[in-house]
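Protocol step 6 of 9: fold each sequence in the batch and record its C-alpha cells directly after the sequence line. For illustration, a two-sequence batch is reproduced in full.

Sequence one:
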Amino acid sequence: MLARSVLCVLLMCACDGEAPDADGGRRGDDAAAHLDAAAHLDAAVHIDAAVRDGGRHDAAPEPDAGRQLDAALDGGRCEPRCAARTCGDDGCGGSCGACRANERCDAGGCAPDGVYFVAPGGDDADPGTRDRPFGTLAHALSVLVAGDRLWLRGGEYREVVDVPLARGTEAARIVVAAYDGERPVVRGRLVLRRPYHWTFSGVNVTRDPATSGDGDLLHLRDGRGWVFRDAEIWNARGYAAATIGGGRAYAAEPSGWRFLGNCVHDNGAVHGPDQDHDVYMNFGDRGRDGFFERNVIWGAPNGTNVKVGAGDPTHPDPRGVVMRFNTFHDARYNVRLVDGSASIVLRRNLFSRATQAWPSVTQNVQGYCLYGTGNALLENLGGGADAFDSYYEPGASPSCRVPAGRSFTRPTRRDVRFPVSPGFDRTDACDGFRPSGAAEAYGRWASLDDAVVGDWDGDGADGPGAMMGNSWYLRDDARAGGHDHVFEWARASDAHLAGDLDGDGVDEAVAVRDGTWFVRGGGSFDFGAAGDQFVLGDWDGDGVDTAGYVRDRTVHLRDDRGRVTSFRYGSAGDRYVAGDWDGDGVDTVGVVRGNLVHLRNTNSAGPADVSYAFGSSGDVHVFGDWDGDGVDTVGVVRGVTWLLRDPPGGGAATRTFGYDG
C-alpha cells in the first residue's frame, strides 16, 4: 500500500501544475503541488494502517513514512547510512546488520550483552558500553542483574554509593572489577547492602571530607557468597575504615563471604579512646562461614587493626570467621575478640607493633570480656608487644557482663611464635610489609599451603589452584587475576590432586587420605596406603584419568578397567609427578630432584627420556598444559609467585604472575 502511495506522489508531482522549465525548475504553484502530494501520502498511510490494525483509524503512521516521503521527493532513492555501523537501523527502513545472540546493538555497534562500563566523565543516560560508558558507579550498580559484569575505568568517582543491589546466583555471579591495568577510586563512601553472589575486585575507596563524614568508607552489610578483594581502603576518619556488618534482620547473613587481598590503612583518631578501627566485624551471631584472608591492615592509632564484636551486651557478636595469612601492624591492638565472639580462628597471621598497655601490658591479640567458645590461635607469629595474647576479665565492670550460665573463655592456643621481629622491607605501602627470616612463613606474603593444577573449565588449557587450608581457589587461565572457582572441601592435611575422572574434559578436585581417594562431587575408592606418594593421569590415552601411587621407588598405575602396571623409577627422596610430556595423549611419570626434572615418555622402567633444570630447590614444581597445545610443561611456585614455561624443557619462564587465590 505504501509503495502505491509513493507512486501516486511521483505521478502527481509530474502531472500537477505546468510543465517544468528548460532548466528543470517549476513555476510558482509547485509548492502547492508538493503540499498536496504530501497530504495524499499521509492519507494513504493512515488508510493502510487502519486496515492493518483492524480498523483503528487513530493508529500512528509507520515510522519510516517520513523517510519514504523524503526518498520520494528525492527521486525515489534512499541511501542507507551504515558507514562504521555493524547493526541497527540503516535510515531507510532496513538494517545495517544483526548482533549475535549474546550481544546487544548499541549506537551501531555490537556489544556483549550483560557487560557494562562506567568511567569518570561518562553519562548515565548512555548505554554503558565501552565507547559510551555510564558516568556514576551508583547508577551502574543499579542496572546489573545476575550474570552481568561491570568494568570500572580508572579515575575518581566522587560519590556516596548506596543503592539496592540485584541478586546474583552461584551459577551467575555479578562481577564489578577494575578495568585491566587501571585504578578506579571511589572518593566518598561505598555501601553494599545484601550482596548475593557479587564479586568486587579492585574497587578502591578513600575519604572525601565533604561527603564521607565520620562513618566508615566501605560498608559490607549482610548478603551471601560475596567477595570483596584486591582493593585499597584508606584515610578514614571514623569508627572504621571498613565494616563487615549486619546479622540482626536476616537469618544466616552474612555467610559464605570473603574479604581477600585488600589493604586497609590509616584511620585517624576522631572519637574516644579505642574507637577508630581499620576493620570492624559487627554482624551478630547469625552469620556463618566468613573468610578474612591475605590482607594487609595497618595504622589505627586510636583503635584496633581488626575488632571482632560489638562490645555491646545487647548486640549478638560474630561467629564462624577464619582469619588467615593476614599482616597486622601498628595499632593499639592488632586483633581484639570481644564478648560473645565465637568460632573465630586465627591461623598463620603476622602481628607487629601493638602500642596500648592495657590493662597492664601491650598485646597483639586481646580478649575483651570474652565468653564466646570455639576460638583458636593457631600457627601465628607475633612481635612488637609485651605479650602475644592477653585477656581483660574484670569481675565488677558494668561493661563486662557475662550472660547467665556462661563464663570467660580463652582461645585454643597452638604453635604461636613470639616474640619475633618481622624484618619488614617497608611499612608505608600496600605492596610492602614483606618480612624476612622466620616471619616469611606468615602473613600476607606467605607461601601457599599447597598448589594444584587443572583444566577447570574444559578449554584444553590448565590453570593454577591455590590452597589455603581446605579452601580451593581455582583460576581458569594461567595468568594473573582473581579466582574463578572457590570452595571448601576435604582436609588441609590430604594430598591434593586434580584430574578428569569421568572423561568430560573438565578436571575434578581429588583428595587422597591414607590411600583412600575422594572425588569432589561424589565417589571414593582405595588405592595405595598411608606414606605413599600419589599421582593421577591418563595412563592409556582413553581420555579418562585414573589413580597411581609410588612406594619404595616402585610406581603402580591402575587404568579404568582395574589393570595395574608396576615398574621401578626414580630414587629415594624424589617427588613423583605425571603429565603428557610429548603430546601423544598418554600421561607418564617423572620425578623432581632438587631443581632437576627427569621425565619418562613411557610408563616403564628405564632412564629418563628428558632431563633439565628449572627453578630452585626450594620451589614447588608444578606441571600443566599452560597454552593448550597438548604438551605438559614445567613451572614453579615461589611464595605466591608462579613462574611457568610454555615450551618443553628447561630455560627461562615465559609466564610470571602472582596468584594466591
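Sequence two, same batch, same settings:
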Amino acid sequence: MHTPRHWTAAPLAAATLALLASCSGGSGDGSTTAPPDAPTAQQPNILFIVLDDFGIDQLTSYGHGGAVPPRTPSLDAIASAGLRFRNAWAMPTCTPTRATFFLGRNPSATNILNAVVATDLANSEISPYEVTLPKLLKTRGYTSAMIGKMHLTGTDLNGAPNLPYGHQTMWKLGWDHFDGYLDGAPYPIDTRAGRSTVAEGTYPCGFVPNSTMDPAHGADAGACYFATGTCEPIQRGAGIATPGRSCLERGGIFDPGQSCQTRAPAALDFSTQNGYYTGEFAISEPDGSARKITAEDPAARGYRSTMETDRAIAWAKRQPGDKPWMLSLGYSAVHTPLQLPPLALISETTPGRNDNLVCSPASDMEGVPGQVAAVVDDHLVTNLMIEAMDREIGRLLVELGLAAYRSDGSLDYQPEKTNTVVVVMGDNGTYVNSVKFTAPGRFDPSRGKGSPYQTGVAVPLLVAGPMVKEPGREVPHQVSSPDLYRLFAEIAGADVEAAILAQRPLDARPMYAYLTDPGSAALRTVNFAEMGTNFTNPATAIAPQPCVVEAAEVCFSIFPYKGLCDDQSGVWYGAGSGLAGVPEEGFAHCGQVMSYRQARNPGDAVKVLPDASKAASDGTYKLVRMNRKTYTIDLTNPVNSTYTGTNTNTDELYRIDMTPPNPVIDKDGSELASGASPLDVSGLDAQARQAYATLRAELDQRDKVADYHQNYDGTHCPGDGNRDLVVDQKDLDNWRELSQLNGGQSSWYDLNHDGKTDAADRAVIEAHIGKRCTPPAF
C-alpha cells in the first residue's frame, strides 16, 4: 500500500515560517490574534465536519447559492485555503452516507440502505465486527471522538428494539468518546414554547413573539425560567427585541406577562424538546461507561450548532499534544425543522434577520419525498441557520488554534502552519424547500434529498491541510463518500489492505494524490450512489400504511401514523383517513391506493416510491435506475389489488455537466432515453450508446451485489453473523453475548430476521458450523 509522506518541517523551515509570521503580524492584514506556529513532524490530527442536508447548491464558493445565498465566510475560507471537489457524491440520505465514511463500503455491501428508524432491524446498522475507521486509525495511535449528529445506530426509544449495546454502541464501534444524539434529527419545534396550557401551533417558531409580531399571543415582558431552577425577569428594550426569543436562546422557557416566582409554574414543560434549542445527548467514554443527558438537563439546552461546537472544542482541548486524534463533528444544521437561530450568530445586514419569518416546525422523515411550500420564508430561515453554523465553524477553528480572527472579523486560516487536516462534506443533497432553484445554480427541489438525482447527491467536499499543494484549486474528478475512508487512512498512514479481508474488498478509492499532486489523473472512473429499503423488524407492533405526497406524485408505506404523513403535507390512506371510499382500517399498500385514485381520475400519475434507486455516472453521462414493486389494479374494488411478487427496473439516461454557474443536471424531462431496462438507445449517438452500455453494466453489477448481501444470512452464508466468511465458535460466542443483551431483541445475530436473537438463531449457526463462504468476484 502507498503510504503518503506526511508534511514535516525541517527546523530551518519552521524557524523561517515563524520569523515571517512575526515580521508580518501574522498575515500582514492587521490580525489581532497571531496565527498558529508551524507544525511539528507528528502525524496530523484530523477534523472531519459533516453538514446535514447540505448540497452543493448552497455555496457561492462553488459558483451557486441562488439569488439570495447564505453567508458562509468560514466555509469559504476553508475552500480558499484548501481544495474544492466539484464532482463529489454522497448517498441520497443520511445514515447510508455516514456509514460509508466509516466503513468504506457502499450501502448494498452492508445492508445500510436508508436512514435507520425504530422499525428497522439491527442488521441494517453498522456491525461491531467491521473494521470501522476509528478501529483502523487506532493501529496508528489515533484517539477518535464523535460529537453531535451522526445517526449510525438504532434508537433507545420504545424499548430500544434495535440498539443491542445501548448507549455503549459508539464505544463498541471504536470511538473513544461519543457525545451526541441517537436521533436522526432535531425534534419538531415545540409550538407551545414549553407552555403546556396553550394549544399546539400557538408559537410556530418555538418562542413567544413580541406584541408587534403577534398582537394576540405576543408579549413584551415576562419571566425567563431555566432548567437550573433560576429565573430572570426580561423585557423588550435595551437590545432585546423579543423577550420570548431571547429567553429561548439562553436555554429558558418564557412565561409571558408574569414575574419570577420562587418555583417555576407547573405549566412550564422542560421535558419536551424544542427543535434546535434542545437535545438528548448519549455520552460514552474510553472505559466503556455511558450515560444520557435529557432535555431537562441544563447541559442539553441551548442552540444545537453552539452546543455541538462547544463539545467538540472541549474534547479536542483535553487531548495530549503528543498523540494524534480524529474528531468527527456532525452538525444538525440544516436538517428540518427550519427554526430561527440566535440573533448573536447572524450579521445585522443578513436578509431576513429582523423579519417576522415563519418557521417550518415539522421534521422530515429520512428517505421520503417532501412537499414544496412556503419557499420564501424557508429559504431565508435556511440561510440564517447556515450562517449561524458557519459562524460556529469559524469559532471552532479559532479556539482549536487552527485560525485567527482578523481585525475586521474575517478568518485568517493558514492550514500550512498547522498539523491538522480539515475535511468538510455534506451527507446528502438539500431537502426540498431549502434547495436553491434560482440562478446561479437552478437546482431541482423535487429531486433533492432522498433521490439519486444530482440535487440529491451532489454535495460540497472541502479538504485543507499542511500537505495540500496549490491550495485554492478545484478538483474536477469524481469522488464518492466511501472514498473518505481511504483518504483518512492514507492521511494517518494506516494499512487498509492489512486490516480487511481480501475476499471483502472496499468500495473506497484512493484520494490522497489529489491533495499532493495538482496534476493527478482521475482515480475513480465511475461515480455511484444508491438508497434502498432496510431490513424491517417484524416483531414491532407498528404497521406502516400508505401516504401520498401529491407534489412528488409518489405513494409510500413508511409511516405508521397519520400525523407523520401530515407533517410531509401528504394525504393519508391509512386507518382513520376520513376519505370517502377508503376503509376505516385504511389501505394496506400503495397498489390499493393507486387503484382508488385511478378509479376517480384515470390520468392520476402517482407512482410507488422505489424500493431501491441507484445512479452511476462517468462525469458526462448519468444513468438512474428505479426499482419498484408492481401491483394489480382493481378499479372496482381497490382492496382487491395485490402485489404481483415482482419488481421492475426503470432506467433513465441523462447528460450532466456540473460547470457553474448553472449546471446541466438530471431534471425531469431532460432524459436522453428512459423506460424499462434495458433501454433502447439505438437513436442516440455512439458516445451516448457506449456510455449507456458502461453505466448499465455498472448498475447490473451493483444489483447483483445488493441481491447477494440481501440474502447473505438466509442463503449465501447462514450463521456468519460477523462476516468473517466462516461459521465457527466465534459466531456462537457472539450470539451468546447478544442473546443476553437488551432482552435478546434484534442484533447482528438475528440470523432469521425475526427481530429476536434467540435459540432459533443459535440453531442456524450450529447447523452450519465449519462452513466457509467465498463471495463471488463481482
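Proceed to step 7 once all outputs are recorded. Observation for sequence two: The first strand starts at residue 45 and ends at 51.
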